Amino acid sequence: MTRQPRTLAALLGLLLLQGACSTFQASTEAAPDSQIAHAGAGLDQPLVDEDSGATTAPADAAPSLLARLLLVEGERLETEGRCRDALQHYEPAALQPGPTQGQALAAIYRCQWQLQQPKAAQATFGRFIAHELAQGRLPLKLLFQPGESRYLADPRVSGPYGMWLRQLAGPLLGSKTCLSLIGHAGASALEQKTADLPLRRAQAVQRQLEALAPALTGRLSSETATPDEPLIGSASDDWRDALDRRVDFKLRPC
Prior knowledge:
Blueprint: H1 20-30, H2 33-40, H3 65-79, H4 83-93, H5 101-114, H6 118-134, E1 141-143, H7 155-158, H8 161-174, E2 177-183, H9 189-192, H10 197-212, E3 220-224, E4 246-253
Parallel strand pairs: 2-3
Antiparallel strand pairs: 1-4, 2-4
Helix pairs in contact: 1-3, 2-3, 3-4, 3-5, 4-5, 5-6, 6-8
């Protein structure tokens, strides 16, 4: 049986801004050994309480070396299937102000979901949404079945989508932000057969959000990505090109 790549664990659909991971990894690799040793001295300290009030820093602020190191080690452990251990690094990383904060929250959510901790995962996802909205972005992707406007059938991927949208609806209502839903299609003949498939996917998500929060009507719009360049482009209509069959979220002024 073919093993799906680890990125399909992040097909929990929660993909952050491109380049975020490579940025902190490159910065860590470039740091002098003395700095890494100094920052690493705090890695085994007790976790700070989540209610301690870590601040949200601007997205363009410099990430702390400690946050980068915590994320690198957490990702290594997660890759090895050791999510419980990874959380011991992701959780303090999420309390470090800076551009890696959202990435750390996403990683915590991902591990809590894989560890079958739905209440904790829902609470973390709410923190993630609040953080990302404060930064003026919403890096979520909802994935779809080949040739259809219904979500990917794998519950490991699409199972939490209803919770995602519920957690998004409230904060969005309380903001002064409008939202564009951008539909995409894959490169296969099946995906390209119907020209309005990307739009129908976006409209399906829009209807779901408006059902959850009718007051959002008028603040949401559905669009087709133009030009629609697949992220993967394998045209395989399976898990390999699942990211091509998606709806993205784009915040915009009302």
